[in-house]
Amino acid sequence: MSVKPLVSIIIPVYNKALFIRETLDSALKQTYPQIEIITVNDGSTDDSLRILKEYAVQFPDRIKLVDSENQGVSAATNLGIQAAKGEYIQFLDADDILSRDKIEQQLNLLEGNGYEVMSSCEWKNFKKSVEETSLIPYKIFRDFDSGLEVLLRFWNHQEMMAISSWLTHRHLIEKAGPWNESLIINQDGEFFCRVLAHASQVLYEPKGKVFYRQPGQENVSQQKSTKAARSLLDSHISYEKIVLEIEDSHRVRTALKKVYLKFLYDTFPENPLLLSEAKNRIKQLGVKQSILIGGPKFQFMSKYLGFETALKLKRLIN
What we know:
Elements: E1 7-13, H1 20-28, E2 35-42, H2 48-58, E3 63-68, H3 73-83, E4 88-91, E5 97-98, H4 102-110, E6 117-126, E7 133-134, H5 147-157, E8 168-169, H6 170-176, H7 187-197, E9 201-213, H8 217-222, H9 226-246, H10 250-267, H11 272-285, H12 296-305, H13 307-317
């Protein structure tokens, strides 16, 4: 590329003092030179803000600090997008780490393509050190002819992509619209559903890596609240509205049915009103054939006893 495009690395931060230095260092050490780092302090109550100020002073030409009251990760990310000037956007969780060549390799791959083409890369789980990682054997690590095909892969096979794995042109981000600030869970999944809905192609870059820090118990317990369940279901309803506008077909409706069944699987028996709403959504999709989800034992029970009976037995066993 004759003129190297600027890449904005957006890092929303809430109480990540233990990890933010390592994350910032991985951004600063990128082999690609044309980067800016936008850190957004989301009303942290630990030492995060002091660390962010320290880095902003030390690297004034590369780091811009936005300080905000606590509004949640979606609002913080939206502030980061507003402050960013880059042609490409790299989202980065405040406890995740990029390999040194991640951005450079992806930009090389995207060279000559339009803004509607985005890139992904491999992500690996780690807890304490990136020297000790684990890779989930997903089949998502490949090229896709459209963003819709990526979404169907996610939903049909219960796979995911860490948001830091993407490199996305700013125009595609703007076309998708802002992050949904009403959601408290699966904000990234809902946002990237909208991004992928507008993506003409997804190119997989095999050399760059993202190291995804496994969440702690606090994250897990938060996901069990009624508010979180409402948010999760709302994100799935958003999926449905988005993709049916692109392709209203049996295969898309079948994938959406799997999404709602997974919601029932994960949240049963709490929140009966939400469970009933999800069941109604499944009914309205009009997919008659039985669909099996979950592990082998649960699928076996579902096949012979029915999905709801299997859910009740699963609850008793656990």
